[in-house]
Amino acid sequence: MQKAVKLSIATACLLLISACSYLKFPGVYTLDIQQGNIITQDMVDQLKPGMTKRQVRFVLGTPLITDTFTPDRWDYYYSLKDANGKITKERLTVFFDEEDKLARFTGDFRAENGES
């Protein structure tokens, strides 16, 4: 009988402790979680057709994803999960032509001249 009581108390304690990660306690600081490349509209406005890969890397930084099978495409991805659980996602895909010059880009940003 005593073993059953001790076991149930231990089980209840473990369940309560594991539930703490899902609960939000007032006054407890939670971190914002950022992943990927931070891309701003100002950075995208600097992109011009005909830029070299080196120039694009200088403006935007190293891409998060460079596909081995499609080296003419770079993907930039950014996500932010704030302390309240709100998730913000942004993405930008840059395409190059056969001469490794910037051809176009698509994603969540607009081009300076209205084209993307």
Secondary structure layout plus pairing:
Blueprint: H1 2-19, E1 33-36, H2 41-45, H3 53-60, E2 65-66, E3 73-81, E4 87-96, E5 102-107
Antiparallel strand pairs: 1-3, 2-3, 3-4, 4-5
Supply the helix-strand structural class.
alpha+beta
Oligomeric state = single chain
As a percent range, the share of helical residues equals 25-40%
The best one-word shape is elongated
Alpha carbon gyration radius: 24 Å
Most strands sheet: 5 strands, antiparallel
List SSEs in N-to-C order: HEHHEEEE
Strand count: 5
Distance between the termini: 72 Å
Give the mean pLDDT.
Answer: 83
Q: How much strand?
A: 25-35%
Q: Number of helical segments?
A: 3
Structural account:
The structure is a single chain. This protein is of the alpha+beta class. It is built from 3 helices and 5 strands; from the N terminus they run H-E-H-H-E-E-E-E. It has helices at residues 2-19, 41-45, 53-60, and strands spanning 33-36, 65-66, 73-81, 87-96, 102-107. The mean pLDDT is 83.
Report a brief summary of the structure:
This protein has helices at residues 2-19, 41-45, 53-60; strands at residues 33-36, 65-66, 73-81, 87-96, 102-107.
